[in-house]
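lol so apparently i was supposed to do this last week
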Amino acid sequence: MELPFAESWKIKMIEPIKKSTREQREQWLKEAHYNVFQLKAENVYIDLLTDSGTGAMSDRQWSALMLGDESYAGATSFYKFKQTIEKILGFKYVIPTHQGRAAENVLFSYLVKEGHVIPGNAHFDTTKGHIEARKAIAIDVTCPEAKDTQKELPFKGNVSLELLEKVLLENKGNVPFMVLTVTNNTVGGQPVSMKNIKETCDLCHKYGVPVVMDSARFAENAYFIKTREEGYKDKSIKEIAKQMFSYVDAATMSAKKDAIVNMGGFIATNNEEWYEGAKSFCIPFEGYITYGGLNGRDLNALAQGLEENTEFDMLQTRIHQVEYLASKLDEYGIPYQRPAGGHAIFVDADKVLTAVPKEEFPAQTLTCELYLEAGIRACEIGYMLADRDPITKENRFGGLDLLRLAIPRRVYTDNHMDVIAAALKNVYDKRESITRGVAIEWEAPLMRHFTVKLRRL
Ligand SMILES: *Cc1c(COP(=O)(O)O)cnc(C)c1O
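anyway here it is w/ pyridoxal-5'-phosphate bound
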């Protein structure tokens, strides 16, 4: 008999979690203004809000913490971190930052000016936020197929070269860089193929435009290249990652994703001018250039996390769990962005809560329903997150309206996946009775989803 698949690690430490009653959850959600970001984490049973900073560190990472060098400048931890990034990404200039958005803030402070146009394959919300806050324009150039959630494609995160070229042509001299996000988080954790990475970079370079890789989940992207793209099955994850980065001019990274640390990020490049320019913004915003807002021990754990999460077994264990959850949803007929993404399943709320009008935020409503059903906290990646158009101030209803079930790395078991799928099925079964959604009572002008206050209709 062939042995079944199992995790490539065992558990050394556990953290208890608590169930609650529906009555309690009704009360807690009301107090949270129907915004799950406002819930107390202790009132959540299974927390799928994000895979960011929520992973379980390994025994090797915990022991690396003990070796942290907390010297203000020139700590050994910095050099270990720098060496690892140079080895895995191939960039010699590295600036640590406290997380991914801080890397964006530091680099964009140097590169982005009012009126600039910055194309990208679905900019992540903080990336778009940092562009729009500087009165520049973010233009999405993701391949149009990504919007059809039911279409099975191996690399749905790809850039549309046609859309990209149009932006580059129409904005000659006004595009400081292009952002290539791997995996493409916003359209469902969908990967970008090596071929598309190369073609995108070639096209940008033809127009003299550099490319910044937003590399929060570059290792998961490399896993998909290895398992889905022809010519890569015998290459290691580290070889594939190195090749991915070889085409781009710089990388920003939220290390809270694929480096499996609770906090951390960085900028990496071989462009000395960019490095010198960004450095001067690191010091006032983040801290001196050899710690950038992080402890020495954090830098050590980050380096160790990068090293181990660019190994095939670790990534296979992770992606297998996400695919397992997807297979349960298939069994129950629940529509999600196909195929399953690397870090999450994105349920197509528009197709689930068909009776809730888009003005009443179906995905946000589904997020509330799932929490009420079983204490599971997911995240809306839809019309609420899309914010308003900065010029017309209208809600942006043009994209997808998704409920994201983000799976933390090395945290939950497949039994938890069974509970999640069953809870969703229960909500799905009564979908026709859910006809009203939520209305906004208060919202912030930018990145409103974190703090928005809602009313149930
Ligand atoms: C999380 C994320 C960011 C921002 O990183 P933080 O560490 O949350 O600040 C940027 N881009 C992508 C693709 C992300 O997933």
